[in-house]
Amino acid sequence: MTSFKTINDVIVLIFILSWGVGCHGQAETGIAPMEKTEREALYSTIQGFVGYWWNGSELYPDPCGWTPIQGVSCDLFEGSWYVTDLNIGPFYDNSLVCAPNVQFRPDFFALKYLKSLSIFNCFTSPHHFPISIPTKNWESLYGSLQSLEFRSNPGLIGQIPTSFGYLKNLQSLVLLENGLTGELPSNIGNLVRLRRLVLAGNRFRGQVPDSFGGLRELLILDLSQNSLSGPLPVTFGGLTSLLKLDLSSNQLEGKISIEFGKLKNLTLLDLSKNKFSGGLVQSLQELCSLEELVLSNNPIGGDLLGVGWHNLKSLVFLDLSNLGLTSGIPETFIELKRLRFLGLGDNKLTGNLSPKLEALPSISAIYLNGNNLTGDLKFSEGFYGKLGRRFGAWNNPNLCYPNGLVSPSNRPFGVRPCQQEVTLYGLDHDGKSKVSNGTLNQNSQFLASLGFSRYGLDGFWKVFMAETLMIVLGLNVLI
Ligand SMILES: *[C@@H]1O[C@H](CO)[C@@H](O)[C@H](O)[C@H]1NC(C)=O
Ligand SMILES: *[C@@H]1O[C@H](CO)[C@@H](O)[C@H](O)[C@H]1NC(C)=O
Ligand SMILES: *[C@@H]1O[C@H](CO)[C@@H](O)[C@H](O)[C@H]1NC(C)=O
Ligand SMILES: *[C@@H]1O[C@H](CO)[C@@H](O)[C@H](O)[C@H]1NC(C)=O
């Protein structure tokens, strides 16, 4: 949790530093030249969001010059100033903060050089003042708009307007944690310059449109935390630039597509908490850049033996818990030299545990609890000491550790000593219940500590900060 706090601090710092870049004003030499229509459109747009009390012409007579407005940036085009960036919501202490009954005024669409619109924590009243995204007029911004962001607006309801399909220059579309519903419009797939598409944390349903596979420049695709269903389009193999794909917490089903193997630059794949089935496909081993693979909580079934895990040389975080896997644990895992987290808990894995896992140089957590592993644990005492409770082997009734070889303080948690099998078996049962109740969600806590919290940070920051933190904090991330 401390590292999560650090992420926030870093982001706040970045915002503070970047805030110096505002209007390029022509200080004290009179009013910066600006068309009256542009100025009036700006005032009216802002007033719609913050309320009638806000009188722009009185408070900010020269909005691109000597009276800059917090959250508004301008640039010079053919001798006149135009608004290029508009940020509404409590980004900073003295930001423009929205009124309870917000309006999206049509004057907004007159800001013809607008490159970036960001509305954060503005429409907050889903019951009293719900508001929809305007369906019309987006075409008037098609040449200019590069970044469109609605974030943390629970009062923003309704569907994504199909007219977003006109915004051909859009590079970033972020609709994160709002109250949006309906199906994903397939013409979002026409926005071929998109590099970031984040639609997480809404109530979208239906299938992921095939057209999304045409977004060849996309780096980040995050559709997590919705109610999307059906199989993934086979066209996903076309997303060859992708670095991060997060589809977690939906109701997606079917086999994990072989097409994923084409995503050679992918560093994060999170398909957890869906209904994927049909076993682990071999093509997963072709994701040679992968650092984090999270498939947990899917009825995938099958075994661990069909995937050449040793090919995933960059893998740092591997979570395959609760997939219904039935096999032994292959020794190829020991070639994952960068692996820090291995989650195999709550499967039906059998067989002995190779003590070679101890040789994983970077490992900080192994969860094998809730399986049917058998035999003696043969790890060294130092290994148990290093991992502590992060060596999870409880709830494997036929597993034991050699009594006498491990000092009491380093005994693997929830595992019985071998010699006392018969007498301690019953006690162990009680122990197990307590253990599994007390140690839920190691994995999600780990993700949160990497900055993967679903609330607060969007896709780009998740990846960026997680990577940075891993590099900077090293093993401390896990503690
Ligand atoms: C803002 O104030 C000016 C003069 O102070 C006044 O003329 C104008 O009507 C006001 N505008 C609005 C929208 O209240
Ligand atoms: C994958 O990453 C490499 C190195 O960053 C880059 O040169 C290459 O263009 C990327 N591939 C695609 C398809 O974007
Ligand atoms: C666990 O494995 C043992 C044999 O190794 C087998 O007898 C037992 O039925 C298995 N238990 C479960 C719950 O699968
Ligand atoms: C957790 O504890 C409750 C009672 O405290 C018990 O009914 C339940 O079975 C326990 N869960 C597990 C998974 O052991």
Can you tell me about this structure?
The protein has 479 residues and is of the alpha/beta class. The chain folds into 4 domains: 31-115, no CATH class; 123-300, Leucine-rich repeat, LRR (right-handed beta-alpha superhelix) (Alpha-Beta Horseshoe); 328-340 and 348-420, no CATH class; 424-478, no CATH class. 18% of the residues lie in helices and 20% in strands. It has helices spanning 2-18, 36-50, 56-59, 381-387, 421-438, 442-449, 459-473, and strands spanning 72-77, 80-88, 116-120, 131-132, 147-153, 156-157, 172-178, 181-183, 196-198, 203-206, 220-222, 227-230, 244-246, 251-255, 268-270, 275-277, 292-294, 317-319, 341-343, 350-351, 365-367, 372-376, 391-392, 398-401, 416-417. The chain has a 14-stranded mixed β-sheet, sandwiched between helices. β1 (72-77) and β2 (80-88) form a beta hairpin. The model is unreliable at 1-8, 10-28 and 421-479 (pLDDT under 50). One 2-acetamido-2-deoxy-beta-D-glucopyranose (NAG) binds at residues 55, 57-58.
Q: How far do the termini sit from each other?
A: 9 Å
**How many β strands by DSSP?**
25
Query: What is the total number of structural domains?
Result: 4
Rounded Rg: 26 Å
Gross CATH architecture of the largest domain: Alpha-Beta Horseshoe
The helix count comes to 7
Outline the low-pLDDT stretches. Answer: 1-8, 10-28, 421-479
CATH superfamily membership of the largest domain: Ribonuclease Inhibitor
CATH topology tier name of the largest domain: Leucine-rich repeat, LRR (right-handed beta-alpha superhelix)
**How do the strands of the widest beta sheet line up side by side?**
1-2-3-5-7-9-11-13-15-17-18-19-21-23
Which structural class is indicated by helix and strand composition?
alpha/beta
Organism: Actinidia chinensis var. chinensis (Chinese soft-hair kiwi)
GO biological process, one term: response to other organism
InterPro entries: Leu-rich_rpt_typical-subtyp, LRR-RLK, LRR_dom_sf, LRR_R13L4/SHOC2-like
GO cellular component, one term: plasma membrane
